[in-house]
Structure formats: structure tokens, C-alpha cells
Here is the input.
Amino acid sequence: MHKFKIKDDLGMHITVLILAIISILIGPKNLNVGGITIVFSPLIWAMVLSFAVYMSPIKTLTEKEAPAANSMMSIMLAILIAKLGVASGSQLEAIKEAGLALVLQNFGNLGTIIISLPIAMLLGLKRESIGMCHALSRESNVGLIQDTYGAQSPEFRGVMAVYIIGTILGPIILSIITSITISLGIVSPQAAAMGTGAGSASMMTAGLSALIANYPQFEAEITAFAGLSNLISSVIALPLGIFLGLPITEFLYKRLDKLRGGKGAKVQN
Here is the structure.
């Protein structure tokens, strides 16, 4: 755990506070594209502004602040989880009615293997695609791939690539996808809230913000659904990856690799 030093970290805290205030003042903004309303929440503005400051010549945010930022992230996530817990408790009846759907919807993550793996292999990726495509690739999946194949394996390079890209672009993409889904009326707000809870707090927050902007009258209910779904996704991610995600990805990879005339790389333990 990083030990905070006011003198060393003061610039980061002031910068983050200013960017947070600016993001809140900007507020949610809607972009209408062909009848589809895409909502950009303050979280998105905060990410964009932080990236802009990081890349600017004025270095108020640098790599040396990363340990302090990670520690602050842990604290803020604890507060977020507490808030979601309170929201879930007030919506117990609605959650009870959803029942098994909250658990079973997580198996939808397996469907991404069928879509993403062939595309990755068409792009020329080899065993990296196994790490990339077996799951959403958050912390538990990174650990699973490292334990199964080793930290020097192509599978681990693949899962880390998706982890990094997901951390940077995931909230933006999920916010856009959620907005499009809701605008087209494909699913109900409650179902969309379940979908935002994919095991990543930042992605869930971005998707949830888009939902709340469209359905403020259901804020308590969809917050509870999203929070509980995110918790279930985090818990079930590891066993789902071990017993289904990884075996299915390995099986499909071998079949598809034969079709493209390759032998694939040997598994590295």
C-alpha cells in the first residue's frame, strides 16, 4: 500500500479535484445520431481530461503518482461498493423477482468467445487470442492466464493487452453501447443494468450513468441491479473462466487454427 506524502502527492490531488469539478460542471451530454442518443457521463469527461493533462507539457500528473493513484482508487471503490450495497438493500423485492436471471446473464460473456476469437485469428493473432478472447479479461482473468500459461507466454501478453485497453477505453465503449441499446429499445432498463455489471467498477459506472440519464425515475432500481450484477460477475469470473471460458476458447482455437492451415504455438507453462 502506498504511503501518502502530502508534499509529494499534493499536486496530483489538486489536479484530480479540479478535473472532477470541471467534469461535474460539464455534466452528462447527449449526442444524437440517427435517432440514437449516446450519453457521455462526467466519468468520461474526467478520463478524457486526465489523459489530456497527462499528455500535456505541464506535468502535474506523471508515472511517479501512479502508486498514490492506485491507493486512492481502492479507497474510492470501497465507497462506491458501500453505496451500491445500500442501493441493493433497498431494492430486495425487485432483486428477488429477477432471481436466477442475475446469475445466468453472466454466461452471456461466453458468447463473446464465438465472435471475438475468429476475428482475432483473422487478424493474424495466434495464441495471444486465447488470452484476449476467453473472457472480459479483468483482474481475476489475468491471474488465471498467468497461473495457467505463465507470465512470459503469448496468452499472458494477450490478456494483458485487453486488460490495459479495457481499463482505458472500456468505460467509454460501454457507455456508448448502453446508450445505443436503450435508444433502440432492445432490452429493458433493468436488463441493461445487469449487462453493465460485467465485473469492472469503472465500466459499470459509465454504463450506469448512461442508464440513469435516460431513466432517472428508475435510478434506485437499476443501480441495485447493476451493483449486484457486478458483484456476481466478479465472483463468478474465475470459475467461469476455469471450467468453461478457457476450455471453450482452447477447443475453438485448435479447430480454427487447423482451418487456416496453422499448427499454433505450443502451450507454455
User: Anything to note?
Assistant: The first helix runs from residue 6 to 26. The two ends are 30 Å apart (CA to CA).
